[in-house]
Design goal:
The chain contains 6 helices and 10 strands, in the order βαααβαβαβββββββα. By secondary structure, the chain is of the alpha/beta class. It holds the Pfam family Metallophos.
């Protein structure tokens, strides 16, 4: 079993092709984007794997987008983001969680803690936090949704939200955050092993 991470798929979000230079160049239509994201997901994720989706699976829980959940391999866990209808920042968002569960998510939550696999037989697994939002930074000029961001207590953070703005960033306290959004990972989920290696490299090269 492999554990994967991804974020910001934005299934069904046609306007994103106008807002994002990368998406606009990669896909001619929202239908092409949807199908490519499904195909890319299933090309790496197996039926016994687990995938953490760190928010913005789609735009506001539309039925057509949620219908795609059942086409995606693996056990899927959603850490909701600001564009998900079940997000805590959406009025009565908690009432929408059932629609995501019925669509095929095994669980829906606001944040989570997990571990990345050890890099060798003598190494320890690395604890990481999971949230849609980074500790700091945004795809806009100002940091939004600060009340929903986790406090930096020195634990590495896997997140989404910022799209192409940055793939990794170190906080003032020296804590690394890695953006697992599809825009930075060839429009497909990234494995926990890859992220463990990437985090190790960031720590070593940063000094």
């Amino acid at each position: 079993m492999t554990t994967w991470f991804t974020s910001d798929l934005h299934f069904g979000h046609a306007r994103l092709l106008e807002l994002s230079a990368g998406r606009g160049a990669a896909f001619a239509s929202v239908e092409e984007m949807n199908e490519t994201l499904v195909d890319n997901w299933n090309s790496v994720v197996g039926g016994e794997d687990v995938v953490w989706v760190l928010g913005d699976f789609d735009m506001h829980g539309k039925d057509a987008s949620l219908a795609l959940v059942s086409r995606l391999n693996g056990t899927k866990v959603l850490v909701s983001g600001n564009h998900d209808a079940c997000w805590a920042g959406v009025r009565d968002g908690w009432k929408k969680r059932s629609s995501y569960l019925e669509a095929g998510f095994a669980a829906v939550m606001d944040f989570a803690v997990t571990k990345l696999p050890p890099l060798g037989p003598e190494a320890s697994a690395t604890r990481v936090l999971l949230s849609h939002f980074p500790y700091a930074g945004d795809s806009h000029d100002e940091d939004r949704y600060e009340q929903f961001r986790l406090r930096d207590e020195g634990i590495p953070l896997l997140h989404g939200h910022v799209h192409e703005a940055f793939r990794e960033r170190r906080t003032a306290k020296g804590t690394w955050g890695i953006n697992v959004g599809v825009d930075h990972w060839d429009y497909r989920p990234v494995s926990g092993e890859t992220l463990a290696l990437h985090l190790d490299e960031l720590r070593r090269t940063a000094g």
